[in-house]
Amino acid sequence: QVQLVESGGGLVQAGGSLRLSCAASGSMFRFVAMGWYRQAPGKQRESVTTITAGGSTNYADSVKGRFTFSRDIAKNTMYLQMNDLKPEDTAVYYCNAKSRLTSQDYWGQGTQVTVSS
Fold first, then answer.
1. What are the CB-based long-range contacts (under 8 Å, 24+) for 64-69?
2. Which of 50, 77, 105, 111 lies in disulfide reach of 35, CB 3.0 to 4.6 Å?
3. 7-31: buried (b, 16+ CB within 10 Å) or exposed (e) per residue?
4. Residue 87, class by beta-carbon neighbours within 10 Å (0-12 exposed, 13-18 middle, 19+ buried)?
5. Model confidence over 87-99: pLDDT tens digits?
6. CA-based max dimension of the chain
């Protein structure tokens, strides 16, 4: 059973920074893709950034140049560094991992990020 546990959300002023963490139970080599998604009130969940098994990283246009995805294989942890935050970045952020073996998607519990103007 795969578990993804997130941490690092909170309240920050516009222009500030936050780093989200997502710790996986077990080796990250089990995943063919990983990423971060977010869901704002009244909106659908959207992709923020994803990384494929080949190492290709994609970012939503709205976060390019401000957000950075990284991972520490030894710690089985992925990160989302968010800089120059804007009120429109306010959302619940979820980490995601897709099983290499079954293609099943796993999700973190979500962490609230609130950016005040």
1. 69/35, 69/36
2. 50
3. ebbeebeeeeebebbbbbeeebebb
4. exposed
5. 999 999 999 999 9
6. 44
